[in-house]
Design a protein that fits this description.
Pfam family, one: Sema
Number of helices: 8
Membrane topology: Single-pass type I membrane protein
Strand order of the largest sheet: 1-29-28-27-26
Helix content: 10-25%
GO molecular function: chemorepellent activity; semaphorin receptor binding
InterPro entries: Plexin_repeat, PSI, Semap_dom, Semap_dom_sf, Semaphorin, WD40/YVTN_repeat-like_dom_sf
Largest sheet: 5 strands, mixed
Structural class: mainly beta
Protein name: Semaphorin-4D-like
Strand content: 35-45%
Distance between the termini: 55 Å
Bound molecules: 2-acetamido-2-deoxy-beta-D-glucopyranose
Length: about 550
């Protein structure tokens, strides 16, 4: 009953158009020609990597890696099969794993290493391994490195990774029982990980990781930072029982760990909660399903877009919240710390820390503040600073989204993936176009306008309903596509279906920043492909079709 009342309240206060917008156009799968890639008897196309310069899309599936033409993914260029050995499979089976579903090599990591090699890892029948893929021969180098800490054992498990300057940063569990998790980096000098304590990571469900580069010639000598996004079971609210919280965590690239305290552990690991709900209203969107960081050149401050669902609601409801990277940094640089500890009775104590904070501030990257005090590396930070960092890694302050509330709330869908493109429309404004996938293989394309959120179109990417596991956007100037991977295959869709709008009115009322009416050819065209046209194209991002009447 309580829930029903909450939902009524939600519906009333969220003027339905602004908060539960309906897609303006719905494309049936059979009405659009999407290009598809799939190989007979190969499943689980769950990892995609794009090489824009080469026009190649790399696809990681179960027991196989493919290279396909990114402009037409039906054109396969190379393939390599990478299977677990019969011995490994039987060990997997003997340990009680399912021979039909689990004891395979699910490719989990495909990351660029340098011009000639990709770094690849697979779950390898619960014995994860990593290798180098030689792109000139499309062959594995046969290094068979231990993948523990980089690649999950369990193919069903969530994980994340990002390659930064030749070093892999990963977030995953480190054993087959999922009893320990880590944020890990192995480099030539040393390996760094999180403390194996649930105060640092408590059953995290990793969804994304990315690097945010320091501004060039940053006046304070700042470092590049690697961000991780995940949902974990909170320990600060443990008096409510198990509550999930969406988190952002970050480490600094220059971190070398401590010398005695925090040896081979991150000294810069800090985490904070992501706030995503309408203040004072239910539900609270406390599960983050995916994150995309928009780093387009016109943005001084990159934007973090996350899709969220709620543990509280019985019906499906999803939200998109956007955060500026500077607001996250502000929480880490100026926020208050929580102090958490486990008492001898194994109880978790978590409280706001009000005492003095050592200098330089723990958790900050080594910047001018540190070097001025002669701390040039985390290895020579003072003991009290490291001890503080070890005990204070959670911020009390939450990261508040732009506009202090979600950009979009949508009922009856579960959003699972997001990618965001930046498009300059003919009105010279830049629009951030969100491509959001559901667990049923549907794609929503939405923009924010002065009237709230506008879902331009809904696309059925797959003939049958199936969850989309990975979503990737190409950013080529005039040939942009969205790629989606699922258990059954990969689909390539154009970022817009302008040519499907038959009249000027339809074209303009779609309010799609990619589309405009060409009055000469009497066609709705993609503006990225027609920039040099001599004819004034007609587009109205506020949906004023009166320009069309003039010509019709
Ligand atoms: C792999 O694909 C199969 C067949 O579609 C599916 O049943 C299974 O759940 C997938 N496994 C993973 C780990 O995604
Ligand atoms: C790429 O990395 C591999 C492995 O570290 C190395 O052997 C190779 O020389 C590198 N190639 C280039 C072009 O840097
Ligand atoms: C340096 O320290 C000062 C004083 O604690 C602080 O206000 C400033 O934000 C710090 N700068 C950086 C880049 O951490
Ligand atoms: C639509 O455009 C026409 C022509 O420029 C203009 O006269 C009219 O005021 C506009 N209507 C709205 C609602 O903006």
């Amino acid at each position: 009953m309580a829930l029903i009342i909450l939902y009524l309240a939600l519906d009333l206060s969220l003027s339905a158009t602004a908060y539960n917008p309906e897609p303006r156009t719905k494309w049936e799968h059979s009405k659009i020609n999407l290009i598809r890639f799939h190989e007979p008897d190969v499943f689980n196309y769950s990892v995609l990597l794009l090489s824009e310069n080469e026009n190649v899309l790399y696809v990681g599936a179960r027991d196989a890696i493919f290279a396909v033409n990114s402009l037409n993914i039906a054109e396969k260029q190379h393939e390599v099969y990478w299977k677990s050995s019969e011995d490994q499979k039987s060990v997997c089976y003997i340990k009680g794993r399912n021979q039909e579903t689990e004891c395979f090599n699910y490719i989990r990591i495909l990351q660029p290493l340098n011009e000639t090699f990709l770094y690849v890892c697979g779950s390898n029948a619960f014995q994860p391994i990593c290798d180098y893929l030689d792109l000139t021969l499309f062959e594995l180098a046969g290094r068979d490195e231990d993948g523990q800490g980089r690649c999950p054992f369990d193919p069903m498990e969530s994980y994340t990774s990002v390659m930064v300057d030749g070093e892999l940063y990963s977030g995953t569990s480190i054993d087959s029982m999922k009893s320990q998790y880590t944020i890990f980096r192995k480099s030539k000098q040393n390996s760094l990980r999180t403390e194996p304590s649930k105060l640092w990571l408590n059953e995290p469900h990793f969804v994304a990781a990315d690097v945010i580069r320091a501004r060039q010639n940053s006046p304070n000598g700042d470092d590049d930072k690697v961000y991780f996004f995940f949902t974990e079971i909170s320990l600060e609210f443990n008096y409510f029982g198990e509550v999930m919280v969406p988190r952002v965590a970050r480490v600094c690239k220059g971190d070398q760990g401590g010398l005695w305290i925090l040896q081979n552990k991150w000294t810069t690991f800090l985490k904070a909660s992501l706030f995503c709900h309408i203040p004072g209203e239910k539900p609270i969107f406390n599960i983050v399903n995916d994150v995309f960081i928009l780093k387009s050149p016109d943005l001084e401050d990159p934007l973090i877009y996350g899709v969220f669902t709620s543990e509280q609601s019985k019906t499906s409801v999803s939200a998109v919240c956007a955060y500026s990277v500077s607001s996250v940094e502000e929480v880490f640089a100026k926020g208050r710390f929580m102090k958490s500890s486990i008492t001898e009775l194994k109880e978790i104590k978590s409280e706001v820390y009000n005492g003095a904070i050592p200098e330089p501030r723990p958790g900050m990257c080594i910047n001018n503040n540190g070097t001025e005090m002669d701390y040039t590396s985390s290895l020579n930070l003072p003991q009290d600073n490291l001890q503080f960092a070890k005990e204070h890694h959670l911020m009390y302050n939450q990261v508040i989204p732009i506009g202090k509330k979600p950009q979009l709330v949508k009922q009856d869908v579960i959003y699972t993936q997001i990618a965001v493109d930046s498009v300059k429309a003919l009105d010279s404004n830049t629009y951030h176009v969100m491509f959001i996938c559901t667990d049923e293989g549907i794609l929503h394309k939405a923009i924010r306008s002065e009237h709230g959120m506008h879902i331009i179109e809904e696309i059925k990417l797959f003939p049958v309903s199936e969850p989309i596991q990975t979503l990737l956007l190409s950013s080529k100037e005039n040939k942009r596509y969205i790629y989606a991977g699922s258990s059954s295959g990969v689909v390539q869709a154009p970022v817009a279906f302008c040519e499907k709008y038959p009249t000027c009115r339809d074209c303009v009322l779609a309010r799609d920043p990619y589309c405009a009416w060409n009055p000469q050819e009497l066609m709705c065209v993609n503006i990225l492909q027609e920039r040099r046209t001599e004819w004034a194209l007609i587009q109205s991002m506020n949906g004023n079709a009166s320009f069309c009447e003039d010509i019709e």
